[in-house]
Amino acid sequence: MNALSRRTFLKTSAVATAATALSARSWGQVAGANSDIRVAVIGLNGRGRGSHLKSLLRIPGVRVVALCDADTGVLESAKGDVKKGNVKTYVDLRQLLESREIDAVTIATPNHQHSLQAVWACQAGKDVYVEKPVSHNVWEGRQLVNAARKFDRVVQAGTQIRSGAGLQEAVAWVQAGNLGKITASRGFCYKRRDTIGKTDGPQQPPASVNYDLWCGPAPLDPLRRRKLHYDWHWVYVTGNGDVGNQGIHQMDVARWFLGEKGLPRHTLSIGGRLGYVDDGNTPNTQVVIHDYATAPLIFEVRGLPAKPGAAARAPAAGDGKRGNTMDEYRGVSIGNVIDCEGGYIVVPSYFAATAYDKAGKVVKEFKGSDRHMSNFIDVVRSRKMASLYGRIEEGHVSSALCHLGNISHILGKGSAPDALREKVKGNAPLAEAHGRMAEHLGVNKVDLKATPLTYGMPLTLNPAQENFTGEFAAHANPLLTRKYRAPFVVPAVTADTRVAS
User: Fold this and answer.
1) What is the CATH number of the domain that holds 444?
2) Distance CA 239, CA 242 (A)
3) What is the mean pLDDT of residues 229-242?
4) Could you read off the pLDDT of 168-210 as tens digits, one per residue?
5) Are residues 136 and 16 part of one domain?
6) Which one of 173, 222, 299, 451 has the minimum C-beta count within 10 Å?
7) Tens digits of per-residue pLDDT, 6-17?
């Protein structure tokens, strides 16, 4: 094993799986308190360039030394953002990970690449900031948690809402009992999503893209949508729909308020892709309910507007209302509402919240700002893992909530309106959310008799084992992972129970 070159190690998936026997520290340089942190940004077509790169360039003591993207056009364009220093560019991540001149990486590639790339980076001795969701399925997210522990890597999940001092204070305030017991923890993604169009056959990927590397662990199938970039969100083979795109933030906040550390006892989805027919296959309208001991966690997706024909404008990132043509729930389009016995908390944006009593009177306000990337760099220096705002264990569990809802939906069946109402009437929170969903679809002239909602498979979980039990386990458990395409195989990493300081 020791005779293998590092290049062979990184390019052979079977050897990469066996890499847990090696010391990651022997490859990477852990930057000291007085050294620059040398960072590479992987994935530059969205948040990688718009958020990661911009944030890193503003942090003292950080040098962006490398950029990586499977699209050479995107890569060359982003290179111009780095004005100082000699930045190297890579199309193939495996070549980047060979470099001893990189201490940490940030990952903002499509969802289906997140866990694989982050595990590889841990094995190569790099610290990691990985965008949400941290995984494309439940199993691979757990492998990333195991890799972070085994290789003693700093791994920050891109759940930046957790970095805001205001939300940290709000969660602590509610958990101290100031509004009484939580009765429901709600999240909302009412965010306009237009059709991505319907193609009549295979499409040609952009000439600037290495399509093999872009697909990575996903099947190397012909492209069957107009746009390669971004619209991958709405195809299950690469994305997770808005449950896993925007909803990961709101389900993370909802679970944070509940104080629940693991997966729920039961999961159920109701939803569909309604209002148009296109090349997407993830829901644009959905309610997912997770049964927790503390209180139910309810998450809603709406991609159709408040009124038919409304302009296709979505709120700005982190803003639940601006530019909005969507429905609202107690003033929230993208955010959270936490119901309690003595009042409720409204989280209408990423870093602010307001507490109300039962009469609707403001009790307390909370405000903060995004400190996520700087927190990551601070912990890369200090090695105090407990100081991370977006610890990978938390990112994994909240990402898994997205996947559980999608598994329920994928295994579900269309249900006529009357039959569906009958199925949910015994679950008051679900029945209420379903009723508002049906009303919203009616306003958008969706005929639920002609295109019925999918009643998802009701699933029972063993939270400790992170798998399904009971009647439908044989159907659901295979969807906890995927068939990987060699050599882009997520390694199975043996759990290491050590707790970092």
Assistant:
1) 3.30.360.10
2) 9
3) 98
4) 999 999 999 999 999 999 999 999 999 999 999 999 999 999 9
5) yes
6) 222
7) 444 444 444 344
Q: Where are the beta strands (DSSP E) in 231-312?
A: 266-272, 285-291, 297-302
Give me the mean pLDDT over the 226-243 stretch: 98
What gap in Å lies between CA 41 and CA 105, rounded to an integer? 6
pLDDT of residue 495: 81
Q: Using the 3D structure, point to which of 162, 188, 223 is the last residue of a domain.
A: 162
Contact 124, 28 (CB under 8 A): yes
- 467 plus 411 within the same structural domain: yes
Q: How many domains does the chain have?
A: 2
- Mean pLDDT for the stretch of residues 451-470: 98
Three-state SS across 291-354? Answer: ECCCCCEEEEEECCCCCCCCCCCCCCCCECCCCCCCCCECCECEEEEEEECCEEEEEEECCEEE
Task: Determine the Cα–Cα distance for residues 143 and 495; give it in Å rounded to an integer.
Answer: 8
The sign one gets for the Cα dihedral 25, 26, 27, 28 is: positive
Q: What is the DSSP letter of 496?
A: -
- Structural domain includes residue 434: yes
Identity at 69, one-letter amino acid code: D
Cα torsion through 479, 481, 485, 489, rounded to 10 = 180
How far is 114 from 156, CA to CA, in rounded Å?
Answer: 12
Residue 137: which CATH number? Answer: 3.40.50.720
Residue 308 or residue 6, greater confidence? 308
Is the pLDDT at 455 greater than 80, yes or no? yes
254 pLDDT exceeds 80?
Answer: yes
pLDDT at 443 exceeding the cut of 80: yes
Range of the domain at 358: 164-200+233-368+392-473
Whether the pLDDT of residue 4 is over 80: the answer is no
Please enumerate in sequence order all residues whose Cβ is within 8 A of that of 357, keeping only pairs 6 or more positions apart, or say none: 179, 342, 343, 363
Q: What is the DSSP string of 172-186?
A: HHHHTTTT-SEEEEE
**Cβ-contact 105, 30 below 8 angstroms:** no
Residues 332 and 448 occupy one common structural domain: yes
Number of residues assigned to the chain: 501
Return the residue matching tokens 């700002």.
369
